[in-house]
Amino acid sequence: MSQATFHAPRRKRKIYESYESPFPIPLSHDGYMKDFKICQGEIINNNVIVRNMEDIELLYGKGYFGKGILSRSRPEYNIAQEELRGRWKDSRGTFPVISSIKYQHHVEWAKELLRGQSMDSKSINKILENYTSPMNLPDERDETVHLTDSIDEQQPESAEKLIATNKDDLMREGNPDYDPLSKYGSEEPNNNHTSPDLDKDVLEKMHCHRHDDLIIHCGCKPEKQTVHTEPERTSVLEGMGHEYVMVEEEATSEAEDLKDEEVKVKKLKLVCRRNPFRIFEYLQLSHEEAFFLVYALGCLSITFKKEPLTILKLWEVFSSAQKNFQTRYMAYHHFRSKGWVPKVGLKYGTDLLLYRKGPPFYHASYSVIVELVDENFDGPPLRPLTWRSLSGLNRTTMNVSKELLICYFIKPPGFTEKDMDSPECIKKFKVQAIIVNRWISSRERMEHEEL
Asked: Of 53, 140, 168, 437, which has the fewest Cβ atoms less than 10 A away?
């Protein structure tokens, strides 16, 4: 058996972020209890989802756990359209810019959602018409751009200046001049008129705009949602609970310079409107990642149908939902403990992909296949491989500049299937990893000739 050659991980050329921490927990003993935070996750359709934005930033920013459901990897979905950035690149406004077609899609989605609540079309159209009407914000300047001309010198005010900072105009939510939905009532609690002991039935119907969930589920307390009486520029938009977008719309004007006939010239302008259908980015964790955060680090709590799951129950649920979850998690736990960042290797036909530090910094170095054997390396294979399939898998791995690694977990003598019912069985296994290399006869002959 030839000795495997270790190749250094291949670093990416362009890196746009800094490395913070390998795990989402404090590494120093002094600040452990002070900075330790337990994130919240839930099982939905056999997936583990994290909704809270602070938890998402913590889990992905420190350890690169999970992936965004609307993004390639990092949860950074933004409603703004990149193709419109060049046209409005000189605009100082901070609201995202989208096209009118995309905005109409959001309006149609909102209509479908309201139809599902057994509302009639007349009421739906009236509510959405009021909600999506143009916002005449103070100090708003009309910005119109010709399709064939450059952007006008007159730019819109920034988001902070679009919102009035005086005491009369600070809280626009609830004001019929600025909030068309104020006439339909509000379910948000108000500390000035609400007693500390709120009815549980009322809390179950209250919606938290910051976390896209009910207040009783997202963890927010009504006492924290206070009404500000002093001007605060940074918290106005959060308090309003709406998402504002700048919609690129067409404006037609008549050109009078032609004598024969009047020609309509198409122009573009930005109109500030409310987004009637908000799309939220969630963090999706694999079963191995979720269990590692619960079992090894203790920084994640997972619920199913509002009921928190214990470690043993979570092990049972994941084992029944995913085939070979137990052996895959043992491999995940082993390589995470060695400093690697394992990810699901489904796109390359393997169980895991191993990254150094994280996907933003290095390309994956190894594609891992996990096998469970006894002390004699016997046992039914979890992934039956023929010489042909192994050669094809190895060639596929080499074409993407990775190496194929087979990780064997060796069971101790007397180990039974019942012992796999608890995650404590991980401590009883031994690990042996083998790198699969392609044998090239010409290279082997040249090495012997040199000797």
From this structure: 168
| Distance, first Cα to last Cα, the chain | 18
Q: Residue 444: phi, psi to the nearest 5?
A: -65, -40
Contact 352, 391 (CB under 8 A): no
Rounded to whole angstroms, how far apart are CA atoms 65 and 101? 35
Strands 307-308 and 340-344 turn out to be: unpaired
Which residue in 240, 101, 118, 230 sits closest to 180, CA to CA?
A: 240
Angle at 443 between CA 438 and CA 445, to 5 degrees: 125
Which of 106, 242, 402, 411 is catalytic? The answer is 402
Is 329 tagged catalytic? no
For residue 14, indicate whether it is catalytic.
no
CA distance 182 to 281: 27
CA–CA separation, 203 and 266 (whole Å): 50
Longest dimension (CA), the chain: 99
Q: Which of 332, 355, 366, 408 is catalytic?
A: 355
Please say whether the beta carbons of 369 and 359 come within 8 A: no
pLDDT of residue 167: 33
Q: Tell the burial category of 63 from Cβ atoms under 10 Å away from its Cβ (0-12, 13-18, 19+).
A: buried
Asked if pLDDT for residue 390 goes beyond 60, the answer is yes
Length of the chain in terms of residues written: 451
DSSP state of 180: G
- Bin 385: left if φ > 0, else alpha if -120 < ψ < 50, else beta: beta
Mean pLDDT along residues 132-139:
72
| Position 356 pLDDT exceeds 50 | yes
pLDDT at 239: 35
pTM score over 0.90: no
Residues facing 14 on adjacent strands: none
The residue among 278, 234, 225, 241 whose CA lies nearest residue 94 is 234
The dihedral region occupied by 227, where left means phi > 0, alpha psi between -120 and 50, and beta the remainder, is: beta
pLDDT in tens, 51-106: 999 999 999 999 999 999 998 889 988 888 888 877 877 765 678 889 999 999 99
Rounded-to-integer distance, Cα 74 and Cα 317, Å: 27
Radius of gyration (Cα) for the chain, nearest Å? 29
Question: What are the pLDDT digits (tens) for 193-250?
Answer: 444 444 555 555 554 544 444 555 554 544 433 333 333 333 233 334 688 888 988 8
Burial, 179: exposed, middle or buried (Cβ in 10 Å; 0-12, 13-18, 19+)?
A: buried
How is residue 397 written in tokens? 């791995």
For 389, phi then psi, to 5°, come to -65, -35
The yes-or-no answer on residue 355 being catalytic is yes
pLDDT at residue 411, as a whole number: 92
Residue 211 has a pLDDT of: 45
